[in-house]
Amino acid sequence: MEEEWGSPKFVAEQFQRWYAQHSHTIPAPIELPQREFAFLNFFGRGMHRHIKLPTLQELQRYLRQNAPAHSYHSSGYYDDPTADMTRKGWLGADLVFDIDADHFELPCQKVHDKWWCRNCDEQGTGHLPEICKCGKAQFTTETWICEKCLQAAKHETHKLLDILIQDFGVHPDELITNFSGNRGYHVHVHNNDFKTLNQHARREIVDYIMAIGLEPEFQGFSQRNRGTRSTLAMGGWRGRTGRALYDYISEAKPEEIKKLKLGRKASSNIINNKEQVLETLMERHPSNITPLIDPKSLKTVLNEALGLQASEIDTVVTTDIHRLIRLPNTLHGKTGWQVQTIPYGALPDYDPLVKSVVMSGSPVKLEFKRAPKIQLKGEGYGPYNEEEVTLPMEAALFYLCKKGARVKNE
Amino acid sequence: MYFCDIVKPRERNYLKQVKTWHQSRDINDKACHASNYSEMMSEREAAKYPFIQAGVKLVEGLNLQLDDLTDPNYRKVLDRAAERVTEAIIQGEVSAKLAEPLTELLSYPIAVMYVTLIGEQFLSRRFALAEAVRSYNLLQQEYEDKIMQIAEDEFSWNIVKDPEYIDGTQHNLKLRFSDYLRSASGFHEPKWKLVNRKMEDGFVSLTGIEAARLIQVEVDNWVKERVSTPSKFSLPQEIQSRVDAVRKVFEENRSKLGGSRLPEEIINEAFPPCMIYCLEGLLSGRRASHMERFGLTSFLVNIGMPIDQMVSFYTDVTDFDESLTRYQIEHIAGLKGNRTRYTPPTCATLRTHGICRNMDSICKTVSHPLSYYRKKAWRIQRREKEKAKETQAETSNTTKQE
Description:
The complex is a heterodimer.
Chain A: H1 8-22, E1 37-41, E2 44-51, H2 56-66, E3 70-74, E4 76-78, E5 90-93, E6 95-100, H3 109-112, E7 114-117, E8 123-125, E9 139-142, H4 147-167, E10 175-179, E11 184-189, H5 192-195, H6 199-210, H7 236-251, H8 254-259, H9 264-272, H10 274-283, H11 295-305, H12 315-319, E12 324-326, E13 340-342, H13 352-355, E14 364-368, E15 370-371, E16 374-376, E17 379-381, E18 384-385, E19 388-391, H14 393-401, E20 405-407
Antiparallel strand pairs in A: 1-2, 1-3, 3-12, 4-5, 6-11, 7-8, 7-9, 10-11, 10-13, 14-19, 14-20, 15-18, 16-17
Helix pairs in contact in A: 1-2, 7-10, 7-11, 9-10
Chain B: H1 3-6, H2 9-21, H3 30-33, H4 37-48, H5 54-57, H6 75-90, H7 101-118, H8 121-139, H9 144-155, E1 159-166, E2 169-176, H10 177-184, E3 199-200, E4 203-206, H11 208-227, H12 237-253, H13 273-284, H14 290-302, H15 307-317, H16 322-332, H17 347-352, H18 369-401
Helix pairs in contact in B: 2-7, 4-7, 6-7, 6-8, 6-12, 7-12, 8-11, 9-11, 13-14, 15-16
């Protein structure tokens, strides 16, 4: 029988081997008895959920015995985690964030991501178009990862942590930052003020972090406002709005500004009087900007600029009070990497392509379908195209988990 | 049935107090009973704000019966209670009549009783809001310290005084964001969005008036909780007649107070742009997000599309599995699972999830896709009626000429 792409049996064995040795190192999430757990294995058959693992021993034993492909716990706390959704008895939930490079528009996706239209023969690279030329939008995709995507995700995570700490007053001890084991980062906030917030309140928090619905007039940018000082150094969105505008205007090329189709005066001021605009932002109250850039144009510019300060989080994950989120320090079945907790302060130097690659073993001979290059533990691999290669275990597992290859049995 | 069984303990205590004090004299003869200044003050406070705990502490231990209310001494109270509900129905706002504090404070629990006896959800909501507006109006006249004290004592807010100027306006208070969001996340105006507030270290800057506006939401919830369960029992004539009178006012005004219905037939042209976006996505086969599918399905369920029609629509344009699709639609329609019929997400939620697209002029006046649909359907129907009239007029004209 021909070996399946991805060789799930082989990968499952490696996961078993790893969990046998390392399950005792996996810590329990706080308030363990109130959490629901859920797991996926390598062979389909749906998700095992509504599981209660009330002690650390039981949790670790479960992982050792089942070596799941994907492990999750609920962000929520329940009276009875094993009941179905309507009878669980919701007590509260951590505030959780998911930052996934998959949601960004990045140049590197042009290099490593591909799509095919299932309706016609059209194909392309990078992000999916909304609709194919043929009028349908049924695509098959192949998405990969590189250090650039991960860097972009890390940058968004930094912005998120800054907002949580500075604006929301979250103490660093109440934050858990995890590498997601794939294309991004997860942030969990354990704090009683967040715990019982409903979906509407969480939606407001999402809007705050992404600057959705931000109106310049409430950040000082209105002629009706009075004030003497620049807001650039201020906390919250008052400061961020000014800094985003400053950074955007100082970097923007004239062509970019022209593309925005601003009012004639605003456009000319930003392009030709850049110094005056920047100096006004730096030295004076934002109400002094309105004579230089009319309100409508200002809104358009801010639409572009606010992304520099806002954090690109997944809106659904944070507003969902029953979310299942990856259990920190377990393995991710789509990469073979570890979902790692990163100590506060260690994020800037954290390199997931070194640190999270935790499995090792004897080299494996692989048969490749197609796979781009990647740098793991400082070693470069690929790209591979319909060829046979023998790779060290850590690289082999990655390509197998991504289903770009299969084990070549002699 | 005892009156005290249907009013909550706190209201019951007011009545206990009154019974001991005023068994045989005018209940508003303050000089007779207010033995000291502070007692008089808290009485007045309780009359202003029916939710404050100070009223509870005034007296204890008694067993006031419904029949006691038939005593002529209580006529004023019964009338004022009926007036409170009537004001809620007609003006949408209860007045504050503080000249007779005891009448005022006692009339509140009795007004609550009237509302639960009528047992109409719409009235309950309207009454709660009207009482909340009354509190807001009174709070606006208080010093900030008083507003803070009420927020802390009655609603456990984490609020501090820390004056600062923002764009030339003095903001004296700072409120913990979680308390802020509990009240403000239901507001629609941009100025209440958290992103448009000054927040630092978890505290949101507020003016005193703004704090009072947020307390209004707390009062609204507080009252709503107390009027949400309908009750039924026989009443003494004196009370029954007043309940009947209030019910009559409510029935007469009901249609005027909005709550107008959705059109009976589905009007495609009245779909809001966000739902058109979801629909077009589905038609093109775009992989729709969960929120898109949920939004569209709950919208279609609510405007009355038959489930069979939706199932065939979904399975025709997508590769969805029929039985799974049916199960999910029936779940949203409240026929399966926890038996609640879901309403579509609000505009704010759709906006957060990137589904609010191509806003038009009607969008700016509504905060919910169903309100958009109702409004636009109404406009379309009105236009059609006018057209029909014109054609009628024209045909009659031509007939005349002929």
